[in-house]
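Morning, I've got a small favour to ask if you have a moment. It would help a lot if you went through both lines with me. Thanks so much in advance, here it is.

***
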Amino acid sequence: MKVLVLDDEPFVLKLLRHMLVQVGVGEVTTLGNGHDVLRQLSDPANHPDVIVCDLVMPEMDGIEFARELVSLRFVGSLILMSGEDERVLQTAEKLVDAHRFSVLGHLRKPFTLVDLERVLDRWTAEGPAAREPARKTYDADQVREAITRGELINHYQPKVHVATGRFVGVEALVRWQHPVDGLVMPAQFVGLAEEHLLIDDLTRCVLVRALEDTRRWYRAALPVQVAVNVSMDNLSSLSFPDFVAAHVAEAKLAPSDLVLEVTESRLMRDPIAPLEILTRLRLKGFQLSIDDFGTGHSSLAQLRDIPFDQLKIDRSFVYRAWTDRTTRAMYDASMNVARQMGMEAVAEGVEDLHDWRFVRDSGCDLAQGYFIAKPLPATSIPGWVAEWRTRAVDLLKA
């Protein structure tokens, strides 16, 4: 890994160089001015894997610097750091993410060696395809052909019961196994599928494959509840509930083996058809989950009107909620809604031991995140479960 550090304080540059060497970074470059960094990056051969960038600098602040990286087609990853309030750091991270950069996270000064190592670990965990979402673009015809040729595959992120550590299920996350480009992440093609009316075909493909994999796990004596993300376009097709029921029956699974996760921000664009379809799905015995709760056009009326069984708390309200009052307030509010409405609460984005202890102590039902497991191929799930059972014993004592 090659890391470039940008900060206007010489002491911080020396300290970070020392810390990066301690965590095993092979090559570290330090510069104190954004203009100097941009001149160096004008040659693509000089692009580092990761840039650690301070937000507050006199000549060019971190937000301006990120904007300038767009013209240079920078495809590495960014880590933001500052002594500013946590909310400022979170907002800055979202702004940089809007430029389609891979943002590994942020560090609030002063931070520890453990904090730095945790964020850098995401660079290794995500892999090249996830780190370079803007390197290549695709068009609708290519996505259509990928669906037709069966190039879409599922990876699965495990979910566990927080109080007992018991493995309970997985969330299916689509990937494109491109014959030339390798593994393409969903950010590069799901938006295209939605825009060009391909998302219904894509979702059905993901669902069928998820049910096939679930059936294989059952045959291997590994009962798994699988969750599949559902688009608003799926909820405008009156045949969708019958399609789901037919394929679940074909896979010889029970409706309770499937959770359908609906993204809140797209939930009620057309209130009548989705309400009918979701109610029919619920009547057929399928569990319904409201995904990323609190991050979109939130409305408690949605929870009142639709029979959801599960509420997923967005990772932005979970990660570091144990140390940030604003994030904690959002997390607590989401938990209270789930409890008062008798819904199962799922914490997304559990990234480290602190997050794990926090969601455990808060009484959250289920959790998922990189601390538990990154998304895995279907064939890796049984092996992971065996490892997790041993690890969970120690976590319950932590």
